[in-house]
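Much of what follows relies on a compact textual record of a protein's fold. Think of the row as the fold of the chain written in a discrete alphabet. An example makes this concrete, so a full record is given next.


***
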Amino acid sequence: MARAPRLAAGRARALGLPTRGTTNPNRLRRVDRWVVSAHRDLLRGSPLVVDLGYGSSPVTTVEMAARLRAVCPEVRVLGLELDAERVEAGKAVADPPWLEFRRGGFELAGARPVLLRAFNVLRQYTEEQALEAWTTMLGRLAPGGVLVEGTCDEIGRRCSWVSLTAEGPRTFTLSCLPADLDTPGDLAERLPKALIHRNVPGERVHALLSELDACWATAAPFAPFGPRARWVEAVRLLSARWPVLDDRKRWRLGEVTVPWDSVAP
């Protein structure tokens, strides 16, 4: 039986279980790029952004800070981890007050960010526990804040994520390097916890991936122009049948975003 989320030992009383901790440089570049585009308004002024569960190396938090500060130089980024050694590794590259590291979990160590990135932290939980973690994290956001929760492979070529506000899930995004796919259905292995067990006939996310695979097959004549051109055509075809929210500019980056309601269990 899976263990319920607990308070880790220590004064910080951080909520959650330590992750495996694997990470690689540039692993989260796709979600960072999307955040800058989709939530640029949140980065105005001197906002606080939290990166939860950055892993054994702080590199992806450092990269996130650089990408966000390229848009808004006053962004402050806080990396949170449950493991004390990982926190110390982060502190070695900290740049207060712009980039800091602290021990914390789903309770966010008392921080109230306008934007929270939580990637590859919920896969070890049950679906019910993951939904509870969503509720906990959303309750810690600043008013109008956004949670971006998702999963990616080890080098960031296959990703998916959900954006959520206090009102609940808002959008669902698939992002990939098209050249890394045989079919878009390959992305099923990187669905977020709320959807990964729902990729079965009768579920909406299964219908989306099946439809995208069908569009990919129809777009086969574009293959000579490269996998990216084929992906763009496949998503264009999909947009005639599904409520796709983004445009060709995002499709060329290997993305497609739909309303959460269209894939919700």
In short: The two ends are 23 Å apart (CA to CA).
